[in-house]
Recover the amino acids of this structure.
């Protein structure tokens, strides 16, 4: 009797492992453009994948992740000194800080698209945070979209950071009588 339960348990565990591996493979395979078979497999596994949050990152990387959103700013202090920076800063260490800043700028851009009515509030919030960190009385900000190079541009030898791949959109200038305080 005990061996029947053990054998059944092993069969069920192996079946789950095979299904899990199959389901995890369908998540990236089903991103359009994809074959009908991959989309059918996705429909079969989507509930499982979504319940365990196993399909969250694939649309970010493939097949067309789009450009990166950066935030350029100049922070001016009351003594007249200023610093120009860009988020994320490629020199940040540890690398995790770079990725956190990158995700912040990507979320900012996503919110601009999803809720344009919140754009002034979001921009002001970013400016106030920068002013607090830099002890600045004025912050000028721009959203910078860094587009991916096309295959033709890569074949032609164009650098990945060629200035033509950057588009800048002015977001505003924000001033305070004194640097905002941290709460």
């Amino acid at each position: 009797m005990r061996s029947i339960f053990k054998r059944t348990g092993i069969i069920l565990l192996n079946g789950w492992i095979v299904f899990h591996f199959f389901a995890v493979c369908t998540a990236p395979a089903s991103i359009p453009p994809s074959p009908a078979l991959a989309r059918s497999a996705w429909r079969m596994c989507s509930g499982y994948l979504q319940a365990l949050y196993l399909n969250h990152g694939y649309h970010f990387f493939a097949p067309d992740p789009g450009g990166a959103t950066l935030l350029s700013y100049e922070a001016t202090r009351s003594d007249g000194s200023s610093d120009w920076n860009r988020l994320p800063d490629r020199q940040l260490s540890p690398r995790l800080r770079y990725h956190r800043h990158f995700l912040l700028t990507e979320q900012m851009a996503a919110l601009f698209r999803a809720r344009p009515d919140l754009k002034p509030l979001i921009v002001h919030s970013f400016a106030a945070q920068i002013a607090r960190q830099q002890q600045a009385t004025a912050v000028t900000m721009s959203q910078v979209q860094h587009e991916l190079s096309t295959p033709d541009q890569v074949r032609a030898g164009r650098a990945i950071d060629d200035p033509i791949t950057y588009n800048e959109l002015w977001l505003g200038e924000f001033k305070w009588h004194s640097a905002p305080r941290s709460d």
User: Anything to note?
Assistant: Residues 2-60 form one domain. The chain has a mean pLDDT of 87. The chain has six helices and four strands.
